[in-house]
Amino acid sequence: MEFCDECGSMMRSEDGTWVCQSCGNEQIRDESANYVVTEDQEESEIVDVSDAEDQGLPSTETRCPECGNNRAYWYMQQIRAADESETRFFVCTECEHKWREDDH
Prior knowledge:
By secondary structure, the protein is mainly β.
């Protein structure tokens, strides 16, 4: 399993590369590593932020690295081991750019 460096979503293996289904980011797959390719995420694991306002996601003051807007919706999701902190994800209220913030 591989996670997107841009938005943190689970990536899909396609023709020797990892492709993010959320933001389209592509990464070259390390052929020397051992991977187990599984089926899609369960529906309950997927966070669709395209209608963040309609979902009632909270917003906060933070600067978007893409457009400079100072407001973004946010949510937290456990993407690493259970004994590590959750990852904060942000979605710009203007351009809908997605980014994440880790504790380390």
